[in-house]
Structures are given as structure tokens and as C-alpha cells.
Amino acid sequence: MRVLAHASRPQLERAWAAWDAKPEVEAIRGPEAGLVMVRGRVGAGGDRFNLGEATVTRATVRLHGVPMTADTVGSAYVLGTDLEHAWFAAAFDGLLADEQLRERVLNDVIAPLERGQEHYDNDRRAEARSTKVDFFTVAREHA
User: What ranges in the chain are assigned the alpha helix state H?
Assistant: First the structure.
């Protein structure tokens, strides 16, 4: 779900368009956008506090028909208000729930998206490392 949530809508659209023999997708809930309260902890383990609100979009879909072996349900929550992004993520989650299609989805959709996200993350880390400044203290010789 992390890979699907972090992928862009155009990436998921392309993956869905390339998917042959698409099952029928029936909306159970949403997609709908709303707010969730983001909570934090003092010192990562102490008292909880409300950090703020974040906009999320959720969708739950039922997939059935060819090539599905049985009806499956997929759901997704993504940051932001892109309804189609949540719908595509939920559809692929439903495909992942089908035992016969799981490996194909992992190899054809999830793995390429994950490699792209790793490259992006590595580039961002390298960019952040390039701005590192080493500070040192010079002791004065005055006593």
C-alpha cells in the first residue's frame, strides 16, 4: 500500500491502462476526501498530542469478473484530494488480494513503481547530504 499511495496518479493510470483483461470495478465507498487528525508523541513514546489535520482521500472497491477467481475487495487511503489516485490504488489492492493475480501485480506494477520511488528517495538523500555543513570549534589561544 505504501508504494501505491506514494505513486502518482498518472503512473497508476498508465499501469491500469496496460493491464489486460480488466475486472469489473464496483465502488463500495467513495472515493471521498476528508480530514484526519495527525497525532504525535512526546519523545516518540510519551504523551500523545494533536499535531494537526491532514487531507486524505479514501476508496473501497469490489472487483469481480474475468480474470478474477473470486470477488475481492480493495481499499486505499492517500494523502491529498485526488479521487482517481485513491480509486486506482484501491483497484490494484483488490487485484493483489486475488491469489492468482498477486505475483503478476507485484512484478508488473508494484516492483517498477517501487524502483522509481527508491531512485527518487536516493536522489533526495544525496541532495540533502550535499548541503551538509561541518562545524568545528576553534579554541582561542588566549588564556
Answer: 2-6, 9-18, 83-97, 102-105, 111-129
Of 14, 1, 5, 26, nearest to 82 (Cα)? Answer: 5
Sheet of 24-41, strands arranged across: 24-41, 48-64, 72-79
Backbone angles phi, psi at 89, to 5 degrees: -60, -40
Residue whose C-alpha cell is 485513491: 86
Residue-wise pLDDT tens digits, 80-95: 999 999 999 999 999 9
Spatial contact of 68 and 101, defined as CB atoms under 8 Å apart: yes
Q: Please give the Cα distance from 14 to 18 (Å, whole number).
A: 6
pTM of the model: 0.79
Question: What b/e readout covers 103-132, taking b as 16+ CB neighbours within 10 angstroms?
Answer: eebeeebbeebbeeeeeeeeeeeeeeeeee
pLDDT of residue 120: 86
